[in-house]
Structures are given as structure tokens and as C-alpha cells.
Amino acid sequence: MSGTLVLVRHGQSEWNLKNLFTGWRDPDLTDKGREEAELGANALKDTGMTFDVAYVSVLTRAQHTLDIILDITGQKGVETIRDQALNERDYGDLSGLNKDDARQRWGEEQVHEWRRSYDVPPPGGESLKDTGARVWPYYMTEILPRVLRGETVLVSAHGNSLRALVMILDRMSPDDVTGLNLATGVPMVYKLKADSTVESKEVLGDMSSAH
């Protein structure tokens, strides 16, 4: 019995727009971000998919993306579980800083390493590996068992918490994942086999070529 796992990165946030490091800070979606969530929601609606449970981080931008999806697909009553295990990576001392200002302060190369390396954390923050260290156990103990029971599970989260998940689903190496960017608001639909490996992956309405 194959279950379905749907991953959606939240739409553009106010701080994405301002080019700020966000992390665990809690800005809301922009108008564009709401539109991105609506596009993703309509793509999901077109599949006729019904969800058994939704998981979401404790941050507003992911929750509002989820609200839009459940509203447009007519599934507002679905069981919803919030957990900070799905939060965006914590950028520590970089949180709230403009990315260009950070480059001027620490240098282009250092900021690039903090942003894109696998295991080098920014000061006081988390690396992608650290983010995975809280996302992966939560996925294995809470989310995966429900998918393996044949349920359709929706996860609304963040660029880095979802990159950590995509890394294990797509069997990417630490080197591979450093180049992975996930489009905002675009659902990734995984069908899993009984052994938890991926049977198929479909990206719905992938707008990346249009960005």
C-alpha cells in the first residue's frame, strides 16, 4: 500500500522580499507569497488529492501557506500537527540581517559558506546538517509511519527543513544538496514504497523556469 507525501515550501515572506536572513524569526507572507501559495493550492486541487493529515512548522509563513492550501482544496477540517522540528534552519547571529550587509561584514566567501555548505553553521545558528538532525528523527517517527499506512500527508515548511527531507528522499549526497534550491509554493508529490524509498516524484506546476 503506497502512501503519498506532499512537501510545500511556504510562499515568499516579507523578509525574503527584503533580502533578510529569516531563520526562526516570524514574518508573514507577502502578497506575492500568498499568490504563490494559491498557485500551489490550485495545482493540488487539480489532482483531486485529499489529505489525511497536515504537518507544519510553528512559523506564521508556513502556517498561512497551509491555510491557503487547505482553504482552496476545500479541506480546512483536516488534522493539523504543528511542530518546531519543521522550522526553518536557525540562522543565529545572521537572523534579521540584510544579506548584502552580512557580506560586507564577513565577506562574500564566508557568508556563502554559511548559507550553502552542508555542515558549517553561522555564528549561534544551525548548519543544514544540524537542521536535518531535528527534521530527520521527526520525519522517521511521526510523518513516515503515516505515509507507510497508505495515508496522504501534506507538509508545509521551509527551504532548509525541506531540503533536509528532500536530501534523504532523493538520496542526495552532502555535496549534491548544497546546490539544491526549492521553489516557493510549488508542491512536490512523492509516492513512497513499503520500504520507505521513493516510487515516484512529481513537481506540480513547476514555475522555476519562469522565475
UniProtKB/TrEMBL annotation:
Keywords: Gluconeogenesis, Glycolysis, Isomerase
Annotated positions for site Transition state stabilizer: 158
Protein's UniProt keywords contain Cell cycle: no
InterPro entries linked to this entry: His_Pase_superF_clade-1 (IPR013078), His_PPase_superfam (IPR029033), PG/BPGM_mutase_AS (IPR001345), Phosphogly_mut1 (IPR005952)
Domain of life assignment: Bacteria
Pathway it works in: Carbohydrate degradation; glycolysis; pyruvate from D-glyceraldehyde 3-phosphate: step 3/5
Gene3D superfamilies: Phosphoglycerate mutase-like
Pfam families the record matches: His_Phos_1
Family of this protein: Belongs to the phosphoglycerate mutase family. BPG-dependent PGAM subfamily.
Chain's role: Catalyzes the interconversion of 2-phosphoglycerate and 3-phosphoglycerate.
PANTHER family, per the entry: PHOSPHOGLYCERATE MUTASE
Protein name: 2,3-bisphosphoglycerate-dependent phosphoglycerate mutase
Natural source organism: Pararhizobium mangrovi
